UniProtKB/TrEMBL annotation:
Protein name: Lipoma HMGIC fusion partner-like 2 protein
Pfam families: L_HMGIC_fpl
Segments traversing the membrane: 12-31, 96-124
Record bears the keyword Membrane: yes
Entry keyword annotation includes Lipid biosynthesis: no
Keywords: Membrane, Transmembrane, Transmembrane helix
GO cellular component, one term: membrane
Signal sequence coordinates: none
Domain of life: Eukaryota
């Protein structure tokens, strides 16, 4: 009975470790860190199919990505273009954002390594009399700082 509980907890921990690693990666890649004020719609922003105005445009900025409006594509419902604004590390918006990129990248690498190792903890639970769960939990705590 105890072995079944330990196995279920390790499977849950493994699943949550993988989910958190992917969530952090998605947050890092997101362009929605700063969302600007809605731009007022003009007469050009009228949706030809419904006659009403389209949703207001909100410019966004992420660590290295942004979303901007494409002015010459008025007939398309997808009139924003999202992608990287920084071609290299020095083009990231500010020193604080560069530090954020470094710390997040290191944290994500640690979380991905723990998620990878956590898959193997269902078969092997200790190495050299050290619990893999304790070591991985410590690494997850460090990655979350």
């Amino acid at each position: 009975m105890c072995h079944v509980i330990v196995t279920c907890r390790s499977m849950l921990w493994t699943l949550l470790s993988i989910v958190v690693a992917f969530a952090e990666l998605i947050a890092f890649m997101s362009a929605d860190w700063l969302v600007g004020k809605a731009k007022p719609s003009s007469s050009e922003d009228v949706d030809n199919r419904t006659g009403g105005s389209q949703e207001p445009y909100h410019p966004t900025l992420g660590i290295y990505g942004r979303c901007t409006r494409i002015s010459h594509m008025q007939l398309s419902r997808r009139d924003t273009l999202c992608g990287p604004y920084a071609e290299n590390f020095n083009e990231i918006a500010s020193g604080f954002w560069q530090a954020t990129a470094i710390f997040l990248a290191v944290g994500i690498m640690i979380l991905c390594a723990v998620a990878f190792v956590s898959v193997f903890t269902m078969c092997v639970q200790s190495i050299m009399k050290k619990s893999i769960f304790n070591v991985c939990g410590l690494l997850q705590g460090i990655a979350g700082m």
